[in-house]
Every structure is written in C-alpha cells, then in structure tokens.
Amino acid sequence: MHLTSFLQNGQLTIVLTGEIDHHCAKKYIGIIEGKIEAYNPQICVLDFGDVSFMDSSGIAVVINALRAMSRIEGKLMLSQLQNQPLKVFRASGIDKLVDIKEVLT
Amino acid sequence: MKFDNYMVLEFPSRSCNEAFARSAVGCFAAQMDPTLEELGDIRTAVSEAVTNCIVHAYPEGYGTIVLRCRILKDNVLDIVIKDKGVGIDDLEQAKRPMFTTGGSDRSGMGFTIMESFMTSFDVTSCPGKGTTVHMRRKLQRRK
User: Fold this and answer.
1) Exactly one of B75, B106, B115, B136 is catalytic; which is it?
2) ipTM reported for the complex surpasses 0.95
3) Is residue B143 part of a domain?
4) How confident is the model at residue B2 (pLDDT cuts 50, 70, 90)?
C-alpha cells in the first residue's frame, strides 16, 4: 500500500495504489481523512488508476472520504477505475452517490 | 461428489492472510483458464469471506480458517471457507446490504458481493461453533 497526493486550484488528488482490502483500509481511511481536514479542498479526487484489486473495504474507504468531504461541503470524485474495482462499486450502488470521472478499459 | 482436483489451506485469522488467501485461490483457479473478469470475481468473493472470518469470528484473538477449493465437472469451482468462531446469531440480518457489526472501516457489503459475484452462495452458522461459507462459480469454457 502506497499513497501520494497533490493540491492544485482547490482540488486535492489522492493517488491510491496496489490492492485495497481490510488489512490496509483503516490506514487509508485515516490518511485520506487527515489530508481532507488539512487542505479543506473544494473537490477531492480519489485516483484508482493503480488499484489493481479492491474488495468491499474499498467501499468503506470511499464512504468515509465522502463523509469527510460533505462535512466541509466539498465534492468527492473517483477516477481511472479499472474493471474489478468498478464492478465492486457498481454492485454496492455507491456509483450512484459519487461521481465516477474516468474509467480505464 | 466427483471432482477433478482440490486443495485445502489452513491459516490463522490474521488480516495479512486476506491477500494470501485470494491469491492462492486465484492461482489454483488458473488451471481452469478463467477470464480476467472471472478471476477478479472469484478473488473478490474469497477476500470477502476470509475478511468476515478475520473481523468477526474470533473477537478474543486469532483462530483458524480453513479454505477448501475443488474443481467439479463442467468447469465449476467450488469454494468452502470455514471458521470455528463465535458464529452469527441472525443470518438474515447479517446478509442485509449495508448491515455490519464492524466499525466504520467496514461497509456491510460482503455477503451482497459474494452473492452477486458467484453462481451460487450459501452460508450456515451455528452460534458458538462457527460459520461456513460455501460458494460456486461456473466458468465459461473459452473456445
């Protein structure tokens, strides 16, 4: 698990990598919440381009990020989803709550 | 039941074994020549079932998880994941989407995902004795 982020024009982009499961989800949730609280962005983009696998723990990561963004009245987006994580998001219906910007095919 | 091949794994309910379990099943299933999507579905369902054992079965510490995979005729992968933990009191409630007794790092979508990603899915539980998840996935034969 490895995470980088950058802030540009009020948009915080957080790049997630590797496989997201329960083993690392708690750490991800804490780091993402910390960054949102520190930078107060209008938009937060979770970049899933390098996430090759995710189970329902990834849904909890997104729900917690969504809560953190709604506390500061900001918007959350997901980008660059590969097929497997996208399928998990669709099965959970979370794709109806969060904007999914780009999908990798 | 007639089967072509099988494997059995036993490991403690430590969260670092989630990745190990789904990778092991993925490697075992590789001989069935699955598509990437089928492999992703199987790995996801195994990860959910094993995570449930790790999060819920042994609240007092670590216990044993047994994972068995068999290849049945007609290209069916049969997976059983079993613990000897506390069991589930109310299965119907546990299966409901978004229901969880875990913390905010759990989504309550595990059973829903297992059910929708596999061809068949069944869970039996005996409070105080443990829980068994039994699922099957029929793989398309590639021409």
Assistant:
1) B106
2) no
3) no
4) confident
- pLDDT (tens digit per residue) in B75-105: 999 999 999 999 999 999 998 888 888 888 8
* Domain coordinates in residue numbering, chain A: 43-105
Sign of CA dihedral B112, B117, B119, B122: negative
Choose the CATH number for A43-105 among 1.20.910.10, 3.20.20.100, 3.30.750.24, 3.30.365.10: 3.30.750.24
Give per-residue burial for B117-126: e unless 16+ CB within 10 Å, then b: bbeebebebe
Q: What is the sign of the dihedral through the CA atoms of A23, A24, A25 and A31?
A: positive
Decide if B56 contacts B24 (C-beta within 8 A).
no
Residue B23: which domain range? 3-138
Catalytic residue among B52, B68, B75, B136: B52
Residue of A22, A53, A87 with shortest CB distance to B54: A22
Name the H helices within chain A: 22-39, 57-71, 83-92
The model's pLDDT over A55-80, given as tens digits with 9 standing for 90+, comes to 999 999 999 999 999 999 999 999 99
Contacts A21 to B, Cβ<8 Å: 15, 18-19, 47, 51
Chain B residue nearest residue A18, CA to CA: B19
Alpha helices in chain B (DSSP H): 17-29, 36-52, 91-95, 110-117
pTM above 0.90, yes or no: yes
B52 catalytic per annotation: yes
Can you give the CATH number for the domain in which B72 is found?
Answer: 3.30.565.10
Considering its fold, how many domains does chain B have in total? 1
Of the CA atoms within 13 Å of residue A75, those in its CB half-sphere come to 9
